[in-house]
Amino acid sequence: MIENNGYKLEEVISFIKRATYLIDHSKAKEHVIRDNFTSYLARIYPEPPSWVNQHIVGGESVARFARSGKERRGFIDNLVGLTVIEYERDLRISEKFNEGYNQIKQFCASKINEGHPVDRIIGILSDTIRWYAYRVSKISKRSGTGILGPEDIELEKIDEFSAVPTEDSARGLINFWQTYLGRIGARPLNAYSIAEDFGFESIFSHSYIDKIGQIVNRAINENKEYAKIISKLWNRVVTERNLSDEEFDVCTYRDELYMLTLGKLICANIIERKALISSKEELIDILRGDYFVRKGFTNLVEYDYFGWINNTPYLEQLLLVARDIQENLKVYDFENMIPEDLFGRMFAQLSNRTERILLGQEWTPHWLANKMVEKLFNELPVNELPQFVDMCCGSGVMIVETLKAAKKRIEEQYPTASIDEKIRLLLNSITRRVDYPIKSKGYRKKSTFPVECE
Predict the structure, then answer these.
(1) What is the pLDDT of residues 371-400, one digit of tens each?
(2) How far is the C-alpha of 429 from the C-alpha of 409, rounded, in Å?
């Protein structure tokens, strides 16, 4: 079966089994395990992406570098864009690992010598089961030849993965390949890209929304009494459509559930600073909120209107949708994200889609929110921290701008404070009063957005 990203999961598992056998039992040489990987790529990807084709034609690429004060030339095992790859027959053998690591340094140096940007160069060391990714962290003075060699650079390990023949591990291996060979995590994570890729006006989101709609309709039909309770609350508190208590506003409810599910998955990736490929258990924890509680965000996910959908028997269907969304979130760069309100544009699309007053406010642009927060900060005494309240926080643009300004002031006034104390001061800087979707509770709570205090 071909997964939605164009690969055959069963072939990935077959590859892992075969590669493990070649390394552990046949004691195969380097070229055999490399050729095995290359041949399997065509079976894994019936319609090969560009990086697979580059991997095939980029074998034995010439590298130019310095060694022992002299210019040398060598051959890179495989080259995919600016990702240099060195294969060894078994990286558990320290001699082979060290040999391959040194060659990665040579080949990264050669790419710098060609004039390529340092921050775009990635080195991969692998025996096709164990995979290590490196980037150049430091460049020393060039040798007398005028070009760099392995002794002139330092590498930093940025990721590693060891494959076993299970579905979760196979997906993880695909994710590693696509991240570092296919360079998937290169799309900026911002409000514009999220709305364009996953927004309600994007053609890519239609299948997710339709599938969630099917889950909602099933839940309504199978649990009519509970659905009546939810419908009554939803129609009175959230939707502004003129509906009786017996009429369930399925479209609005479906759209909200989709956006909430997407938001949870994005938040988990932001916390980890990478695109997650979760096991079934981790996905359940993300959807139900247990994942965030373990990370210290105790009220980020609540049961509210959607908790019953996140329980059996509907959870199994929702997990399939969440899995697809998570796979496609891999395009984003979660390591270098812009500190901004990520969901504002989607909120604006949602209000246009449902024509509701409660979400009908125009999305506040970041520049305007920044100016408003700056004005309020200027009115505070210079040594005082804010204690703001956002009465209708919406997607949180005012909260984001306040936290950014508060973080700067905390760093200036409390440079020696502990991380925990800085976080406490930061969380006290603004309170959000949520009038949607839990307006009827008059619920007020501190902001718990993931914030980095360095």
Answers:
(1) 888 888 888 887 888 888 876 666 677 887
(2) 11
